[in-house]
Every structure is written in C-alpha cells, then in structure tokens.
Records
---
Amino acid sequence: AVVSTQSTGMNRIEDVEASFIKELLPPINHSDSHMDTDVIEQDTRTLLVYPPPPAQASITLTYADLECLKPEEFLNDSILDFYLQYIHQELISVALKQKTHLFNSFFYKALTQPIKKETRRDAKKMSV
C-alpha cells in the first residue's frame, strides 16, 4: 500500500488505513445512488472478504454494512470484526500477533448462553 508521509517522516495511521481500505474496496457504482435507503440497507452483496481466502477467520462485509459508517449511525458487528482483524493483520508486530487472539463479537454472547442438556451429557462422556 502506498502511504503518505508527513514532514516528520512518520506515517499517519489514518493515511495507512485510508490507502489500505481504498485498495480493498471495489469501486461503488454511484449510478445506483437513486436506490431507496431501505434497499441499500438490505443489500447483502459481498463487498469484500478480509483477509482473503484461504485465510482463516475471514470477515465478510456487505454493501449494507457500509450504511453504518454514515454519521450518527452505530457500527455493526461486521465492521468492528473487520477493523480488529485489519489491526491484527496489518498494524501490529509479529511478536504481538503471536500473543494475541481475536474473538469475534458474537463470542461473548455464545459464552454467556446456558449449556444445553444434551451438551452437558456429551461433556460427561468425554474425559477432559
């Protein structure tokens, strides 16, 4: 990725992010800008998959996900997961990557759900 450099010689993280995202995102067809907002919010066409296959733990963003990037909108789980994955893949050192594991935003919900009876029965059969 081409990164702009300030007079200090250091790369601004905003410049790195902007150039990286421009490289990842396919051009958006603005001729569709007349589309109804409700239609855009439900547009499940894939915008990008990051990191690209065959990488594990890829995040898929859709055109509908872009809607939450507008001012006054809340970020959705896919955008948060993408950004965490981006930071992990592109911005941190190899040493820190080896000490880090990312859980997607649904992990906590799954962790706090009660265990189903059949799962408990199966767990008893296994020696842990």
Note: Residues 77-91 form the longest helix (15 residues).
---
Amino acid sequence: PTPPSDDTYTASAFWNKVRTFFEEHNPGNVKSTTDIVKKYWGKDEELMRALYKKYEVPFRRAGTVAESKGAYYRAVLQEVYAGNEEKISKIPSILQKYEGQEGTLVERLGQTYPSMGKV
C-alpha cells in the first residue's frame, strides 16, 4: 500500500496531539512533528506513553486543558481506556462513583494500569 501523504499526517488528530505535546514540553521538536508521526503512524498510544515517560509529564491526554477537575479525570480515563469502547462508555458513571474521591480512582487506575505513570 502507498503511504499516506504529508497532508494526511498533518491533518490527523495524532499529529495535532504530538505537536501540542512538543509545543508544551520541547519546542525544539515541533519542526520534527511530521517525521515523528510518520514513524509512529498507527502506534499513537505507544508514542504518547513514551513521550510522557521521557519528559516526566503526568499521564494525561496531550493538549487537554482541564477546565475543571472532572474534565481532567475524564481525559485521564479516556487516555487509559483508549480503544476500549465498552470502558469509555462507562466513564460518566465511573466519574460519578468517584466524585470527591479522585485520589482513590487514580490509585486504583495505577494498580490496574501500572504503565500509565504519574497522574
């Protein structure tokens, strides 16, 4: 198969996520965004987890501005459950269950998903 064009890469949500991450944590790499996205095309989660770990950034969805505590934890859950539509559909009930007990939620996520890093 023919690889996607540069326009396909730069129009992707993955490209935007990587660029936003570099704008925040390593502006010198912004110019390399397209090359990095090409290298990791189809491996979005692998790259983002590696970047969070390398730059010691708390694990969260890149580019998400947490307007509220609920939005922040929703973004964390979306990232942790990426690709699992059943769990993603349960996020509102999980947030409701742990409202006011977000520390417990994070602790349990860390036990279940140790690779998620610091939140």
Note: The mean pLDDT is 78.
---
Amino acid sequence: GLFDEIPEPNGDIPCLNPSRYANATTIVTLSCGARHSGIAIVGCMGDIVKCPNEAYPGCAQQPTTTTQPSNMACVDVPGFVDAWGGRSYDPSWGGTCSEWASYDCNLAVEQFSYSQAQEDDVLANCPASCGTCNGKHLQFNTAVAFDTDGTFLLKYHKTNFWGE
C-alpha cells in the first residue's frame, strides 16, 4: 500500500529481520538496498499510525467527520484501484475508493474474499471512503534513514506548525 506501519527504529537491520517489518515492506526494501549497495539511504514515505487511545498525540484532535487537519491528511489516494478492480466476478467493479464508500471496508476478507493484505491496502488507501478517519488512524509524511549496512537509523514525522 501507499502507507506502511513503520515501527520505531531499534538499531536492527530490517533486511536481516523482515518478519518484524511485515506491515512495513518498504522499510525492508530500503534496508536491503542500502545493505547490498553499501550506501546510506534517506527516503520519504507514508506512515500510518493506529490511535491506541485519545491520549495518543493528535488522536484527541481527530474530528468526528472525515475532515482532518492537513498534517493528519485523511483523503483517499487519487487513482487507487484495489486488487480486484476490473478483475472480479462483477466486471462493473472498478475497485475504487468511491465504490468502497458503500461497503464496510473492514469486512473485505469476510464478505468479498479479499486477503488480509488486500483489505489492509483498501483501508490504507481509502481512509475517507472507508470512514477510518474518525480517530482511528493518523497518516504522516515520514522521513526514514538507513546506514550503509542497512541499519534502520531513524524516522521523523513531518508536522505543520503554521496551520496549513
């Protein structure tokens, strides 16, 4: 998906421990790229953070509608098409976020034979249509850095302080 659940760096090498990063496959890819190339890598990617409670920074500020502060963007990814878009038993199913707005995205596995990874992809890419913006997730533009041996060094969530 567009967003990964990026864990806090703990000094390990994701390329050598991919199971810890099952929900952050981009982290593994970047780590392996740094390790195999012998270069440091700094990248920018999307991080999705599930709100564990209202005390979690930013979660209490989540509105009860799908409109959110810009540093916690809650918009569907333009042009997203899910894994079954145009390939399902129903040829009219395009798999777009606007189509998902009529269904419970959290039941894609149970009701529509999606894999868990495919359901997670829909939820990550269609937060406004799926209604997951109501304090359930925060999305961040995130910088990540890797050492030349693939060690995951840091992640940094960008925030806007001027109210953009």
Note: The longest helix spans residues 25-37.
